[in-house]
Structure formats: C-alpha cells, structure tokens
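From the pipeline queue, job 12 of 40. The input is one protein chain; the requested action is below.

Action: predict structure.
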Amino acid sequence: MIFDKFHLVENLINIAIDEDLKHGDPSSEIIYSNPRSNYCLLLKEDAVISGIEVFKYIFKKIDNDIEFVNFKEDSFYGKGIIGNVIGNESSILSAERTALNFLQRMSSVASSTNKLKKLINNEKVELIDTRKTIPGWRILDKYSVLVGGGKNHRMNLGELIMIKDNHYDEKNLGKIIENGKSKFPELKIEIEVENTTQLNKVMDEDVDIIMLDNWSLETVGEAIKTIRDKNKDILIELSGGINKENIADYAKYSPDFISSGSITHSPKSIDFSLEKN
C-alpha cells in the first residue's frame, strides 16, 4: 500500500527535509568531514518496527552514496542494533533527525496495534483502525497498522458510506439508504447504532455493516446475537469505550471487527537513536 502511493509519502518527506534543512546544517558542516563513517541504528525497547524503507529513503534523498548494511527483514524486534548506516558523516547527521522522526512514529503505530491485537485472543476478530490519524500522515499510519497485524477501515470518506446515528432517525433512515444505493451502488453501507431502539430499526434495512458504538459488555452479546439471528451476512463492528483492559471480553462475543482510534491517535513513541560505531 505504501509504495503504491509513494508520491504521497515523498511529499511528506520533502516537507520534513525542508523543515529541518531549509538553511542547511552549519553545525555538521563545520565539525564533521569523515567521508566514511559508520553509525548504528539502536532500538532501545522491544517493538514492531515499521518504516525502515522510509528511513533509508530519507538518507538517500540527502546523500545517495549512503549505504545500509546488516538490516534485518523482520518487523518484530527486541532492543538492540537494527542495522548500520555508512557514509559521509555530515550527510548522516543532517538526515538523522528527520529519518528517526518517521521511524519512531510509524513504529509506535505498529507496536500499539500489535499489543492490542494480541489481547483480542480470538482469531475470528479483526482489529481495524479509524480515520483518527495525523493529518497528512494517513497513508503511513494505516500502513503501520498493517505491519502491526491490524486491518484498515476506510482510507477516506469516499470508500464507504458510513451513516452515523446523528445522520438519521426512524423517519429518514430508509430514504438515506435508498439514496446511497442509487447514487453509489458500488459502495458498502455501514450504519452506527447506539441502542436497542436504533438496532431494531436498522435490522429492517438493507445494510452491509452494523457498528455497535459504545455498547456495554452487558448488552453487546445480545445485540450481536440479534443481528446474527436476523442476517448472518451482515458484518458487525464494535467501537467506543474499548481498551486494553476490556478488549478480550468484547472479543469473546466474536464480532467481525473491533475498531480502535487509539492505535493511531495516541500511540507511545518508540525510542530509537543513531550512534557512532
């Protein structure tokens, strides 16, 4: 996915490089002149790493002669040396912060996704993301979700018709769905429901996905059973109020998806550094 739309990533990289090097790097220019220095990329905590190719690309944008050796192909790492960056010392240090910024952010999303995914403990349930991503970074955030073992929900508003509970009432729901199928026959329709009254209404409509939003553990099991008894083809998503403490309990009811905004809007940054050998 990331390389199919790499022009979007390159725009971000160009902005970041310009942000840091708009007026050059006089500190490195006056201190460092070694044409062949060896720096190691050090991971300081266990993590799922996402963004190594972006990391390398940034260095190459600064200096195409920089080389990378001993980098592994795995995504799951224990703390330690990940690989070596070799080349002109001034170039390496000029690219260092920008490259690490991308790597630590992407790896934080991948790692937070992986941790939450493991807690689900039900192979029938997929962990999916939301649109709660850093503006402009969605392609990288969602790629990192995939690296961490999650799945992507819609990339943008145009990929799915999502009818939230404040979009409809009992009088206009049928008309909204009819309009959707007429104007956008190729798109699936997902409807958010927050209570039993809404669910009973939605169950009479021709929809593809029902999102049970902010349902308690005491009520969600019966809601899922109601949907499955009515139509086994309807996919079920759980969202809202689900966290690392209760996600396994929600997953026991075997919805198709559990969505989480936290994996992209507030992951803990992964600690990397670039150290001279």
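Job complete. Residues 123-265 form a domain with the TIM Barrel fold (CATH 3.20.20.70).
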